[in-house]
Structures are given as C-alpha cells and as structure tokens.
C-alpha cells in the first residue's frame, strides 16, 4: 500500500549532505553536498519519508493523496539550520558597551572592570522569570525566521544558584512551548562574579560541588561548558569542573583557545568533549589532538567580527588537519548580538575561506554532530525530522553571497509549516 504524505515540497533545488549521519564530515568530504534539481521531499508524521527527483518522489507519494503540497519553483530547499552555540537567555542589552569598544576599550578590560558579562549578570538576576521567558521567546522567533530550527542555549548569566536554575528552567519551558528544539547547557563558570572576585577557586568549588549536582539532579541541562580563558578560568580549573560534570553524566563542550592559546583544544581531546568552541588561538598540537579524538570544532566567526579582530579561527588549517568543523552564532548580548546563521555563513566564507558548501554543512550536518543529534536532524534524508527551509534563492551559493537580507521564504519544523512568506505562522 502506498503511504500517504502529509506534506510534499517540490523546489528548483534541494541541497543537503547525504550519508554523513554516523560521523561528521571532514577533509574534502566537508565540501560535498548533494544537489537535486527539480527535487521533492515527502514528509509524514513529522518525519521525512523520501527525498529525490520530483517525478520519483511523486510516484511513491502521489500528489493528489498528500494533505498539503508546496511548489517552490526557482527556490532552494536546505535542511533546517542548527545553531550549536548560543547564549539566548539574558536580561538587558549592551549597546553602550558596543560604543565603548568602538572607541578602543578591549572586551576583557570591560569585563575586568565589572562590565561586559557582569552587566548582563546584574540584569539577568534582576529580571523576573516570566519576563525572561518572554524576552527569550522573541529571540527564538527571530532565529526561526532566519531559518534556525534547533539551537543550543547556555546558562551563565546568573553565576549564582538561583539565577542559573532560573535560566535553565526558562530554556526547559521554551523547549516545550516553542516549535524549535533546544539543547540546554550549564555554563555556571562563565565569569567570576563580584562577590567571589578574589576567590576564583572558591567560586569554582561552589559551581562544581553545589550548583552542578543540583542541575544534574533536576535534569535541567545535558551539557556542561566553561569559559576557559586567560584571566577567567585556567586549564586546571576547567579540567576540574568538566571532569566533575562528566562524572555526573553531562556531555562536555566549552569555550576554548579564544583569546590566548591555553591548550583548551588539547583538554577537549583529553576529556573526549563533544565540541570545543571559538579556537582562534588553537595550536597545531591542539588541531591534531581534536582530529584524533573526533572533537568537533564549533567556530563562531561573528564574534571576532563584532570584536573587530583581524584574526579568525584558522579553519582551513583545521580542515586540512582532519578536524570536523561546525559553525554557530554565539548569539549573546555582548560579543555577538546576531541571531543570523546565514550571516555566520557569509563571515565563514569571507573571513575563514570556507566554501559555500562547507559553510552549509557547517550549519547543518556538522552542527548536528556538534550536538550529538545527527541521527535525527541535519540533513534531508528518510527517517530524519521534517525540518526544512525554503529559501528565496536560486541555489545554495546564493545564501552566503547575498548577505544582510533575510532570504527565508518558508520554514518547516517537524513537518509543520511554521514560517510562511517570511512571516511567523501563529498557533
Ligand atoms: O562566547 N566568551 C564568553 N562568552 C560569550 C560572551 C558573552 C558576553 O559577552 O555576554 C562568548 O563570546
Ligand atoms: Fe559563547
């Protein structure tokens, strides 16, 4: 019996990786995508049934039996984008710091003087739960409008038990209520709060021995992160917290080798982290260690762009060394106030010399691997979630090329149309 499709989408082009659900794309394979001209995707019960040439898919799943048909000639379909590194839940905003940085004050100096992340900590502590929930929901809506269907979100603007829990509860509630899939990460060690200014080890003990077990017990986060950076948390402190997190069952992903080459990449390999992120200052040994252990490098080029750096992560060298590269926004109120993964693709191409194909794989299949979710999302293949974007673009190269404008036409999440003609569908 022929199964009936809930939704059939046909389009000028369907572009996706194929056959990379087991392990991330590396080396030359990272630049390979499958392009189907005059293609179609059939979806039922939220999952992809088939993808291929339009006439073949329509033979298997006749159009007249489908509940809904979308025809998008001249447009391009990709998998829903996945953002594996964001700080989406926070109070306040930091446009004054933006102006200060333009005038020449460095990011870490602002933090050391009690501003930056600590400004957001004050605003997040002060914001009532419901307000934080609504503010974060609006950010998710904007991400979805830009083609992001899944995002990782970190805590880390509480730096105390109550606010860290409040942030993680917001993420949990939004995961239930919002159409996007969310991956919660505990980032209690994001900065050293004022009250612990001269006692960083005591703060770390507090996070590791008191807060982390509470988060584990309440099942509020799947991953654990730390800002491993000179002047924030060193390698020893990071190892201590992350090992404790592993004992409690967390997956590890962390901010590593961003401003100073501390050996965060090697630590990520030593611990078997799922991902090490930023990596502007990664060493050759760090690259080799990550490649050997299969740790994904999640690169965030919109952050050095915002911080007006001349230097970006050495993505080409990493790819040559066999490291799996994913891309993310790092969306946060300070070092990266953009939700836009298409903009991240543009910066990855122009500043890190990724090809448009690598950039697409970076925000889809390899981003799924960065989160350990490639079995269920990240490509348009039978059995995966029906998460797709129809772009008002003639091909996938158009996405990073024609930047600064939102090219999203339609977003389908779990088989449901959630954005139509560039607008959110209510309810
Ligand atoms: O990834 N590096 C630490 N955390 C964020 C910045 C957060 C902020 O500035 O509020 C980052 O860049
Ligand atoms: Fe970050």
Task: Give keywords.
binds fe (iii) ion; binds N-(iminomethyl)-L-glutamic acid; eight-stranded parallel sheet; alpha/beta; 427 residues; globular; eight-stranded mixed sheet
How is the secondary structure organized here?
Layout lengths: L6 E10 L17 E11 L2 E7 H7 L7 E12 L1 E3 L11 H8 L4 H6 L4 H10 L2 H17 L2 E7 L6 H17 L3 E9 L10 H18 L5 E4 L8 H13 L3 E6 L7 H8 L3 E4 L5 H10 L2 E4 L2 H5 L8 H6 L4 E3 L13 H12 L3 H7 L2 H6 L17 E4 L6 H4 L6 E6 L2 E5 L2 E2 L3
Parallel strand pairs: 1-4, 5-6, 6-7, 7-8, 8-9, 9-10, 10-11, 11-12
Antiparallel strand pairs: 1-2, 2-3, 4-13, 13-14, 14-15, 15-16
Helix pairs in contact: 5-6, 6-7, 7-8, 9-10, 13-14
N-(iminomethyl)-L-glutamic acid (NIG) binds next to α4.
Description:
It is built from 16 helices and 16 strands. The protein is of the alpha/beta class and 427 residues long. The strands form two sheets. The chain has an eight-stranded mixed beta sheet. Strands 5-6-7-8-9-10-11-12 form an eight-stranded parallel beta sheet. The chain is globular and about 70 Å long. The mean pLDDT is 97. Bound molecules: N-(iminomethyl)-L-glutamic acid and fe (iii) ion. The site of N-(iminomethyl)-L-glutamic acid has 13 residues, from helix 4.
As a whole number of angstroms, the C-alpha radius of gyration is 21 Å
For the report, how would you describe the main beta sheet?
8 strands, mixed
Q: Give the % helix.
A: 25-40%
Quick one: how many beta strands? 16
Which spans of ≥5 residues are poorly predicted at pLDDT below 50? Answer: none
Lateral strand order in the biggest sheet: 3-2-1-4-13-14-15-16
How many DSSP helices?
16
Shape: globular
- Briefly note the structural class of the backbone: alpha/beta
């Amino acid at each position: 019996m022929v199964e009936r499709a809930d939704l059939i989408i046909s389009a000028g082009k369907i572009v996706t990786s194929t056959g990379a659900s087991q392990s991330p794309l590396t080396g030359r394979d990272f630049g390979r995508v499958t392009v189907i001209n005059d293609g179609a995707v059939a979806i039922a019960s939220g999952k992809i049934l088939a993808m291929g040439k339009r006439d073949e898919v329509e033979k298997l799943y006749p159009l007249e039996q489908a509940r809904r048909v979308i025809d998008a000639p001249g447009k391009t379909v990709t998998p829903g984008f996945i953002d594996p590194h964001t700080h989406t839940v926070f109070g306040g905003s930091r446009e004054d710091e933006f102006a200060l940085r333009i005038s020449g004050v460095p990011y870490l100096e602002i933090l050391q003087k009690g501003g930056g992340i600590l400004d957001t900590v004050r605003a997040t502590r002060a914001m009532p739960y419901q307000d934080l929930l609504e503010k974060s929901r609006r950010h998710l809506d904007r991400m979805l409008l830009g083609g992001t269907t899944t995002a990782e979100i970190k805590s880390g603007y509480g730096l105390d038990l109550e606010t860290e829990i409040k942030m993680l509860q917001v993420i949990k509630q939004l995961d239930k209520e919002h159409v996007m899939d969310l991956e919660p990460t505990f980032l209690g060690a994001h900065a050293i709060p004022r009250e612990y200014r001269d006692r960083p080890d005591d703060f770390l003990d507090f996070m590791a021995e008191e807060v982390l077990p509470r988060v584990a017990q309440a099942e509020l986060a799947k991953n654990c992160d730390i800002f491993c950076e000179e002047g924030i948390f060193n390698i020893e402190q990071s190892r201590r917290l992350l090992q404790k997190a592993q004992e409690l069952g967390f997956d590890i992903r962390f901010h590593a080798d961003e401003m100073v080459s501390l050996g965060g990449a090697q630590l990520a390999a030593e611990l078997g982290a799922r991902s090490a992120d930023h990596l502007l200052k990664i060493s050759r040994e760090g690259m080799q260690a990550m490649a050997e252990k299969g740790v994904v490098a999640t690169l965030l080029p919109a952050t050095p762009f915002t911080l007006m750096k001349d230097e970006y992560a050495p993505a080409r060298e990493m790819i040559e060394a066999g490291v799996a590269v994913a891309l993310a926004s790092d969306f946060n109120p300070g070092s990266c106030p953009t939700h836009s993964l298409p903009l991240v693709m543009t910066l990855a191409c122009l500043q890190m010399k990724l090809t448009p194909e690598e950039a697409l794989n970076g925000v889809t299949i390899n981003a799924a691997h960065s989160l350990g979710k490639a079995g269920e999302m990240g490509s348009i293949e039978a059995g995966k979630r029906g998460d797709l974007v129809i772009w008002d673009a003639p091909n996938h190269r158009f996405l990073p090329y024609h930047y600064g404008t939102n090219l999203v036409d339609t977003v389908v999440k779990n088989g449901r149309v959630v954005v139509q003609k560039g607008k959110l569908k209510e309810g």
